[in-house]
Amino acid sequence: MKPIVQYIIFKIIQLKKKKEKLPSKQFEKEMKNAKVEFSHLIRDSFLILLGVLSAGFGLQGFLLPNMFIDGGVMGISLTIAELTKIPLSFLIVVVNLPFLIMGFSTISRQFALKSIIAIILLAVSVHFIPFPIITEDKLLIAVFGGFFLGLGIGLAIRGGSVIDGTEVLAVFVSRKTSLTIGDVILIFNIMIFGVAAYVFTIEISLYAMLTYLAASKTVDFIVSGIEEYLGITIISDKNEEIRLAIIDKLGRGCTIYSGKRGQSLKQTEIIYTLITRLELAKLHTEIDKIDKDAFIVMHSIKDAKGGMIKKRPLK
Questions:
Q1: What are 262-314's pLDDT values in tens digits?
Q2: Count of other CB atoms within 10 angstroms of residue 49
Q3: pLDDT by 10-residue block (mean), the chain, 315 residues
Q4: Rounded Cα distance, 254 and 232, in Å
Q5: What angle do CA 60, 62, 65 make, to 5 degrees?
Q6: pLDDT (tens digit, 9 = 90+) per residue, 99-120?
Q7: Are residues 161 and 185 in the same domain?
Q8: Is 210 within the bounds of a domain?
Q9: Given 184, 204, 224, which residue is the final one in a domain?
Q10: Segment 104-111 long-range contacts (CB within 8 Å, at least 24 positions apart)
């Protein structure tokens, strides 16, 4: 539906230009915005489709045939499917539906609509695509079933949707209570694994935990980006030399802002730059060459884009 809507909007803009004779710059801006939205739509749709196929493969190829469960809303669906023999494809939609309704008010309408489409596609994928059963080894099932399921969830999130409503529930509850999102997810999964231990066996519950760990780590990796960056703040009397070293030796950009030292209130320039973890040792080497007493603060950056971040490869 969205591509059709975009096409209609584009045609309306063309008609408006002819009828109202919009200035060319304004028309170009409208055209550019429409193209950007359409390109993002194509990218998001591809990521969601890839995520659906990956999650479907993880479910059908590993977890479902071997009575394995996961955490989150998907874990609830798998548990109910094992107990009642109701088709998982039906449960994926029904169990996620309340969380998607929360998504309308908690996050956005567009997010909720994308998620509904993604979950329906996952249900169709699980029901109609005959994924092969890969292995009966329990350790491989837990690790790789979790990996492919987590890969699917992560790609769907990258595409602006979810195929597991746990995060939506966590956001909703955190806004109504003093609990953090992490607290809600942890409590939710403890309940699921406790039920699995009671209804099935402790062994199945332990494997479910392993599956969940594999899935959650994969989601973190996909959502946070392939490259994890570090934000580096540097305070030194030799800030100009360090700035040139960052630009010339590491090929990175940096930002300079003014500050004052706490004790002397002396004016100083502060350097801020982003590097990958692989470049950290080289940065330390270059800074030590210039000023061994430089004050350095580092913190993790989940993802970044633009500027000089990805223009030069590592040497």
A1: 777 888 899 999 987 778 888 998 999 999 889 999 988 766 666 655 544 44
A2: 16
A3: 54 54 60 73 91 94 87 88 88 90 81 90 92 91 93 89 84 78 80 88 90 88 72 92 91 89 84 85 90 90 64 43
A4: 10
A5: 65
A6: 888 888 777 788 888 889 999 9
A7: yes
A8: yes
A9: 224
A10: 106/168, 106/171, 106/172, 106/175, 107/168, 107/171, 110/160, 111/160, 111/161
Percent above pLDDT 70 for the chain: 83
What length is written for the chain? 315
| Full residue range of the structural domain in which residue 254 is found | 229-301
Cβ count near 273 (within 10 Å): 23
Both tokens of 223, joined, read 């959502």
Crossing angle between the packed helical segments 166-176 and 88-106, to the nearest 10 degrees = 40
Element of type H or E holding 157: helix 138-158
C-alpha–C-alpha distance, residues 97 and 112, integer Å: 10
The conformation of residue 278, written as its DSSP 8-state character, comes to G
Tell how strand 267-276 and strand 229-235 pair up. antiparallel
Residues 273 and 196 in one domain: no
The H-or-E segment that residue 300 falls in is: strand 295-301
- Cα separation, 62 vs 152, in Å, equals 14
Three-state DSSP class for residue 90 = helix
